[in-house]
Prior knowledge:
alpha/beta, Aspartate Aminotransferase, domain 2, seven-stranded mixed sheet, 12% strand
Amino acid sequence: MTESRQSVVPYFRPELTDAEIHEVVEALKSGWLTSGPRVKKFEEQFARAVGASHAVALNSCTAALHLAVEALGLRSGEAVLVPTMTFAATAEIVRYLGGLPILVDCEPETGNLDLADAARKIEALRAGRLQDPFRASTRVVGIIPVHVGGRMVDPSSVRAFAAKENLWVVEDAAHAFPASWRPDAMSPWQRCGEKTADVSCFSFYANKTITTGEGGMAVTEDAALADRMRLMSLHGLSRDAWERYSGGGWDYRIVAPGYKYNLTDLAAGIGLHQLERAETMRVRREEIAARYREAFSGIDELEVPGDDPDRIHAWHLFPIRLRESALSVTRDEFIEVLKKEGIGCSVHWRPLHLHPYYQETFRWAPSDLPVATAEWRRLISLPIFPAMREDEIASVTRVVSDLCARYSRGASQSPSRAGQTFVAAALAGEPS
Ligand SMILES: Cc1ncc(COP(=O)(O)O)c(C=O)c1O
């Protein structure tokens, strides 16, 4: 283990080439820095890549989600079904407009929203069994599924559920570009963003599957929704700066109290070239996922994501789930030692109902969302990024396998004591 200590594998390293650098330099030289021709081109090319009619480039996925629910008319006091297993953004944008997120549990293996629990939550609401501030009369208007790690939720089931309950669907596709699904092997693939929701929202944050540093995109088939999101992304002005200064004249009207969510041409310049390589980078992540799955296949102390022939997975995340009963250490201790051994990792996520704001404001109890409560304690996201070198992949597989063997309750020499000694030594920084 002493040797692996030196090989530091970061959780993520972006893959940026001379093409991105050259494009940003060209944008700088052009003198047009904010939203302009590169943003327009990025929108057109992204819409084509996902098979959508309209794309609105924004400065984050959070902005895209916010504008989507605003355009769909979310009003204060209305409720929206949001998975508890997600990042802050998915629920906070409901709060921005005074909406009430009803947290929904997840499927154990994928971490994706469980529609059966969504149905149970609606039933509980209508029966007056949900806690204050929810009331039996609270209107549920929408659902925001998240494609956790880039493995798509079945959008047709979500659509059917939404149609039955009269809900709109905004897809949090922060992890899901490029990703596709099909109902079965006989059906054609459908891309995430290709009519899979009323609005699909993507992220180009620094460590996402493609990046613009910070950035996002909202795509839709509905021209009126696209127009509203575009308007609200720039102060509610009737014409953007590019239109005004590229020959349209200085004048504009404020027609709504909008936000400041536009993407810059510098960022779009990066995005244009990331977009060109999106599938190549996805294939590389898929190869890394296959290597991990193979390396960990015989290890009883952990579970890896299952294979699904009806998904083209974006592989933004590679979550392993530790089998707590087979190990003598906790997930947090396991992460500490991984860190000491030079392997960057993360956790996706501490579910929303276990954060102070959602506990205090909505009084969710851990038992209200039992699957997420149990699963998150054993989750670890391993590094998976296209710029990962072969020696880095080998380091991750070697260190994870080694730690599982050392901490295994099934190990021959007094397993828990051996594990504890190793943890103590590793945390103290001693060679192990
Ligand atoms: C599921 C999910 N939704 C939304 C976001 C927000 O994306 P952004 O940082 O582009 O606003 C993230 C960011 O990590 C995310 O993981």
